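User: Please predict the structure of the protein below. I'd like the answer in structure-token form so I can feed it into my own downstream comparison script.

Assistant: Understood. Taking the following sequence of 342 residues as input:
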Amino acid sequence: MGTTLTELARLVQGSVRGEAGFLVEQANSLDRAGPRDITFVANARYLDDLNGTRAGAVILTEADATHFSGNALIVANPQLAFARVCAHLHPLSMPPPGVHPSAVVDARAQVAPSAIVGPGAVVGPDAMIGAGVWIGPGCIIGSQVVIGERSRLMAHVVVHDACIVGRDCLLQPGAVIGADGFGFARDGSRWIKQPQFGRVVIGDEAEVGANTTIDRGTFGDTVIGDRVKLDNLIHIAHNVRIGEDTAIAACVGIAGSTVVGKRCTIAGQAGIIGHVEIADDVHITAASAVMSSLTEAGVYSSGIRAEPAADWRRNVVRLQQLDELARRLKKLEQTIQRLSKE
């Protein structure tokens, strides 16, 4: 079985150039695609590779289609169209609804008949599991947790007490929602734990990557907005608020009480200190250290890129000499000023 190019064109609001009835069986990458596969090109640097592809059809912009003589699906945004085609050709395989015999569901929990509770999962008292929810193997759902309709929690996800996950969310394996924030007070040389009373509230259509952790608020809530996309291995500290449609790549750390605006992107390994505000439409590049609020939209960077070790060692020596060079320059400027007055 498969889907014709005409049907795929209707799905992505595109047009077909070539054999409209061509039957597509699966999606694949440009270099791996076979005669019944569909692929895409969204970057001009891959146009030369079109000559060597074995793909039966390629998703292209109208301009890029001039570089390819085979079947083409013409769209404005090939990457977006390919994502939708992939979802259509490779639908998720869902187990049948019901509670697995090895799962433990508290008598006071409310689980919709169409929900799936997988092997070894635990659902606590007064939890509410919505219609079409999939709770995967080994997940732990605390008391008074709310999981919105059609959300999917993959294996070993933990959602702690009173936290809320919206509709149509995806939580990847090992995600931890609502662990205690890192709050301690000094008592001489000892640290005394500050109890964390807040929640985590995740909006609709959000995604949380594998082994990403989102801490509960100390008093108020940690809030993840609608359609926020979090990659793997991210840490979101207590009382952080992230605006709608923001995307954050792997290994980012955001310290407590920081507010991130809407439609932001934060690249991998960036770090943001606590109690700062990031405006809407801010884009932070990889490995940047954000040490103060960013109040205007735009692209922000910090850090030094990798270079040959010999060059780096020379530059480090020069960096260590900056204070001395600044003093010498200031002294030279003062001498020039004095001489100019004589």
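That's the full token string. Residues 16 and 218 are 55 Å apart (CA to CA).
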